[in-house]
Amino acid sequence: MYQPGKPIEELERELGITGAIKVASNENPLGPSPKALAAIPPALAQLHMYPDAGGFALRRALAAKYEVDLAQVAIGNGSNDLVYQLVLATCEPDDEVLSHRYAFLSYRLAAQVAGRAYVASPTTPDLACDVDALIAAITPRTKLVVLGTPNNPTGSIVSSGGARRVLEALPARALLVIDEAYAEYAAAWPEVDHADGLALLARDPRVIVLRTFSKIYGLAGLRVGFAVSDAGVIDILNRVGRTFHVSSLAQLGAIAALGDDEHVARSARHARAAVEQMQREVTGPGVRVYPSLANFVLIDCGRPSTPIYDQLLRRGVIVRPLAAWGLPSHLRVSVAREADMPRVVAALNEMLNEMLDA
Ligand SMILES: *Cc1c(COP(=O)(O)O)cnc(C)c1O
Hints:
By secondary structure, the chain is an alpha/beta fold. It has helices at 8-15, 34-39, 56-66, 79-90, 105-113, 131-136, 160-169, 183-186, 197-203, 231-238, 248-258, 261-281, 306-314, 341-354, and strands at residues 21-22, 73-76, 96-100, 117-121, 142-148, 175-179, 207-212, 225-228, 288-289, 296-300, 317-318, 320-321, 330-334. The protein folds into two domains: 8-32 and 262-357, Aspartate Aminotransferase, domain 1 (Alpha-Beta Complex); 34-259, Aspartate Aminotransferase, domain 2 (3-Layer(aba) Sandwich), CATH 3.40.640.10.
């Protein structure tokens, strides 16, 4: 089962403290898109009505924004849900789902829940996708290759050339899923080359781009994400969708958020500054802060990170320990509000340095 970040209320209840900071789930510390917040209250009086099962208005807004046909867009109850749907819709019993060793855990879980084999290829020493190793792990049974870029929990990216090479090596029957949950954050780093899912899709109909309203739009609690692909792939995907799986408020909030360029731009700028601040200021013996184009950083503590995680909890700072990912000396830390960043950095530095004497 997926272990989510510890809720603030749970920590405050357990320790009898207040003012805890959660930097464990890559949520947007600037809050929800104000346009989404304004759109929702007037719709509350219509809650007795079922949502539009086809999600027409939201899909039309997405199709217009990304310049694709309506039939190329599917919506889901978060993009996580679309990963599960994709495995269900496309994988025969003997088919394999392929990603790399430090990919998002949901890819593995989605394969397991559907009873399909999951294959994880080795990464580079920097824990990034090793495109050659990934290609070497492709078999005639490979059906879905799933790549997060930026990847969660490492923050690493796949280059545009790397993604093209994966496509060239992809068996005709297989599909390439590009999980772009953090794409809008990566756009704040124009000087860094990274794969562009929609550009890849324009070249090859076997590409599926996944995006979400949970991250930069600040709507994780609303549960809405979407897929863009070839119309034929979207049709297959929709066949396993549950009826009314995206609520009316989620559809409305997402449409409003899509037009909130200001919130997106502000959030991306804020995240880049906070990532750079952690890269500059979080230090300690054997400590390494990895590069990241997302709204979080991966930190190698140079020793077991679970005790550090526990000590940070006592200081009211909730981060994510990564032992479940097979990274026992690493933590993932999301960006905090600007006013909270000094406390997050200070707590990390205190733990990463002082505990050596204990
Ligand atoms: C957060 C995240 C998602 C999206 O999750 P939903 O809330 O289900 O939309 C998808 N992939 C990755 C890698 C993520 O980090």
